[in-house]
Structure formats: structure tokens, C-alpha cells
Amino acid sequence: MRHVTDLPVETTTEDLWIPLPDGTRLAARVWRPVDPTPVPAILEYLPYRLSDWTAPRDAQRHPYYAGHGYASVRVDIRGSGNSDGYQDDEYSPTELADGVAVVEWLAAQHWCDGSVGMFGISWGGFNSLQVAALAPEPLKAIVTVCSTDDRYDNDVHFTGGSVLAVDMHAWAATMLAFCSRPPDPAYVGEGWREQWVDRLEHTEPFVHTWLDHQTRDDYWRHGSVIEDYSTISAAVLAVGGWNDPYRDTVLRLAAAGDDGALRAPVRGIVGPWSHQYPDRGLPPGPAIGFLQETLRWWDHWLKGADRGVLADPPLRAWISESVPPATVYDELPGRWVGEPSWPSPHVFDRTLPLVADRAADQPEVALWTTAPTVETLAGGHPVPTSWLVDSPSHTGVDAGRFFPFGNDADLPPDQREEDGRSLCFDSAPLTQPLEILGRARVRLRLTCSGTKGQVVARLCDVGPDGSSTLVTRGVLNLSARHGRDRAVRWTPGATEEVSFELTGTGYALAPGHRLRLALSSAYWPWVWPQPGDAVLAVAVGDGALELPVHDRAASHPPVEFEEPEQTPPLGVVFGEAAEARPERRVVRDVAEGRWLLEVDPRYGGTRTYPDGLEFTEDALERYWIGPDATSARTRSDWTVGLRRAAGAPLPEGMTGGWDASIRTRSEITCDDEHFFTDDEVVARDGDEVVFERRWRRTIPRTAG
Length: 704
Prior knowledge:
11 helices; twelve-stranded mixed beta sheet; alpha+beta; hydrolase
């Protein structure tokens, strides 16, 4: 990483309030040139507190853009950080309407020339797409990183129509902890406490809304730009990572740009990265000069300078080489390819049938299994000659983190134990490299013993030593087999054709390795188990894996990126955690047949800021499962503290310092017919409890 101090333009920084039409004020920080000549503005619009939580990250990039002749603006959305109002949900109509108003306000400032860009990662990438779909006239271009165009099937709530237990729970708990944090008196004044209590009184756990909508209804269609790409007229640079759950959005946006569904020009980049900006150097690398790359984009669309962005391939993708399984890689081996369109003419479909016996004279055209066949399913249901899929409830404990952040325990470990809990189909050892680029699809003729169930597919790279590296995976809730917008129960013992896609990947298996397809009926805690513990049967001879094979010999234009550079770090001092514990720990109670997965998400930890703010953050997620589906249980505990000692910058009249803290607890349990949510917030000013509330809800299991 190169820290740049000799930027072309001298800059200044200002904290200000952006007024909205209803009188609400949003907290904003602006980095811009000292020279009064108007320049384009670039907006990052988030709920993650510009005055503390994102301040270290903001310091890496906003001054960089300002130093190259832009007004770079970071805004806290309504009800978050130091902004007025209440936050009622993620990507609500109010949030997006406010975003449009902010874009128009920026364009009207004396230091802005009327052109605006918008960027962000995750939440900020989401609302960049969503605000662009509302088409405010000043918004000319966006950069959306690790974001989604489909809020139902490619976000943190559902996957394949199944409840995404690991993040339906964990992200709702995280947002409860964020929404409960106080505004900072150093910015809002001595009325901070009244504003905080008012905010807390209007807080409602997001999980209630998310579990109230278990199919893809109008709630999820709102903000899902996949519904109508043609509403977007701003140029789109979409960036993602193969180790981020949102990478399929980049592929879909690139395809929408190619086929004209999206009116604006689109360019896509997918690297090896986790859920991080790709210049930060966090595992897995290699990192790229992301700020330089985005500066080319801004210069072209906001300043009219020809920086060659339209000559870039529509999709630049990283293809990793075979690696042994590990939970972290500093850098992955591989190469960049530039595809002339997406879908690419260099990618062709190869269908690999699922068979019982390997054809010796055609070793690479089928996947075969040694599993015994059956003709009767649980409950006595007769089935065609089939292989059973009846996975233990704890299958999935080695799935890794849904949102890898570059931590040491994020990625899936060796999959051999998971494979042993699944029905596996293997290729013969490969005689030449097999390069995959895109989304594979699984087709099965399936029988289910119950009315509900789900099937999970994993693709793995099996080395000569038997080690199994996860390549990609996919989920289908059987009730969603006819569409995510409805829940159709299965007739017990019935046989149907089903198919579903796996998430995209760029991966090259080495000669001597085998490709494995593993099928399971459970995947805890990623997927909340369906009631009934149904057993599945896969019909012999009727299934296949459809694989997007990339022509390794195809000619590609060279893809090169500069080395990462950023502006100097903020000078935050990070402290040690109060309690040393593993990032990820699995505990098995052998006698009871119960499993516990404990996760320390390590979002930020304890730190001290240059202005004297002492920030502490501790979170622990826990996931329990026993032998049956209704034993599933989740719990998340957060403790957050914000403190300034006496004498630190505070409003006049506050002489005793500032010491605010919150504690939250969030739990989900279930029975066959319901989810039960239990959330609690306790907020303190010093030792005084200023707010305490508990929410308990019973929510019918309509599809989840």
C-alpha cells in the first residue's frame, strides 16, 4: 500500500448539515478543493456513523478524491450517526427519497458544478443503485461495490427461498446495535441525550419486518433494481469479489448492459476479494489500485475527460488456480481475463450427468457416485431407483462465514467432513485444467418424504491427497421450486424435476484433481432447517451438473491494474479485546447430539480516535442445533461504548466528559409452525439506565 501525500489539489474539510424538504437535517462531511472553482461532487450515503465507525475507512478515500479535484461527501442517512430522524428499515422509500434530495442539494452548492457521482460498498453500493434507479438528473455515474440488485434472493435475508439463518439473525442483531447508538454531543450539542432517547423509542428490530415477508413480494421488489434495469441512466461500474456473497450482481449487471436492458454503460470487475474495498489489502488478495480505477471512471463521466474507460472489457474477472483448503489466504494464485461481452463467447456449457458408474473410456464427461441405491423412501413411499440424501442437522458447520471480511477464520475449511454428511458425485482425475467462469446449475429428479425440505449443492476441488476445497454452492427451498414469489408445499412421496443455480465463480481445477458435487438436505447455520426433517431421494440417471467452462486458450486483452494507493490513515489507535477468544469455534455435545457454533465477527473492536473519542465494541454470535429441525436457535450479544474524558472536545456546559453505552441481545427460536424472536436493548448514560426495552414476537413460518 502506498500512502499518497502529494495530491494535485490542496483540500479542506468541513462538517455541515444537509437540510431535507421536511426539515430533517442529515450530518455530512465534505472534503473539497480549497480553490473556489466549482467541481463535481461524489456522494457516499450510509448509516454507519461518519464521526466514528467509518471514519478510518473514509480517511483512506474521500481526501483522495478531493485531492484530484472533486467534492467528496460522506452523509449519515436519516436516524443514524448524528443525523436527525428515525431509521425504520434498510433502503426504505424515505431513505431513497432523502438520497435523491441529497444529490439535488449537492448539485446546487456553489462549490459543485452540477454533476454528481455516487459510490459505496454494501449498503452504500445498494443505495447507489437504488437512487440511480430513481434517476435524479444530476446523478451521472455510480460505483457500486459488493452490492445487490435483488434484495430477496441475493442479500442477507433469504437464499434460494430459504431463511438465511446466519445473517437474517446476525445482521438484524447488528443493525439493532447500530440503530441504538447515540448521536455524538461534540457534533449535535448538549441535547444529544434527548435526541438519543427519542431515537430509541422509535426503534423496532428489523427482523420483524424481514420474517413477515418470507416470499419475494412487493416488500422485496422495492429497491431491487433487477425488476427494471431500464430505470437506471447513470453509468455503472459494478465491483465484487468471488469471496463475497453479492458477486452475482456484477455478472447480472454486466449482462444487462450488454443486452440493452440497462440503458446506461456498464463495466464489471470481479476479483478474489472478500466483502471489502479491493484496495485495502485484506485477504484474500491480490489487491488492486481501486481508487485510481474509480478516478478514471469519475473523470470520464463527471469531467468529460477521455480516460479510456469505454475501451475496458465489459467484464474483467479473476480466475483462481487450485488451492488447498484454508480459512484465509493472503493472496490467491490466478490470472485476470477480460471478457468481450457477458455472457462471454469464451464460456460454453458442459453438461455432466450424475451416474452410478464411471465410463472408463470417457473419464471427464460424468460425475459418478458409489452411494447405494434405494427404491423406498422414509414413510414407505416407493420411489424410482434413487440415492438418498438425509444429512445430519449440523451439516454446514464448516460453511465458513457468509460475509468474509478478511479475518483469519472467514473462509470454509477442508470440506471432507461436510462431504461425508452429503451425497457426493466425483469426476475422474482431470487430465487437463478445468476452468469455470460463471454460474453452474444443478438439475435433479427429486422425491421428498415430507411437505417441506431443501437441497444444498456444493462444488468442491478435491486434491490428490483427498483434501476438499469449496469452490461454490447454491440452495433451493423446495417450496420455492416454482418461483420465489410463492410457497408451494411438496406432496409427500411425489417426484418432480427441480433445478437451481449456484453462485458465480472463477476457478481453475488443476490436472490430477477431481470435481465434486455434494448434495445435502441441511446447511446450518446458513439455512434455517425446515420442519419435518424430510428425507430426499435423487433419481438415478436423471440428474446433471451444467458447468460454465471457460476456454483457457482463448485470447484476451491484457488486464492490468495499478498498485493500491490511498491517502494517509486517520491515526486511530486500536486496542486489545477485553476477552481473548477464537474467531470461530465449534463445540459438540456428544451425549446430547448437540452442536454450538460461536462466532466473533470482529467488525472493528476497541479504538481511540485523534479527537479523544474512546470507542469499544464487542459482539458474539451463537448458533445451536440438535438432532431435529426445531432445535435450531440463534443468539447475538453486542456491547458498545462511546466515551470522552473530561477536557475532550464537548459542547459548552458539558464539563464531566461523555460516557454512553448500549447492550443488545437478539435471539430466534422456532417450532414447526412459528419463529419466535426475542430482542432487548439497554442504554446507559454513565451508570444511569436511560432506556430499556424488550420485544418478543411470534411469526408464522409461511415459507421459511
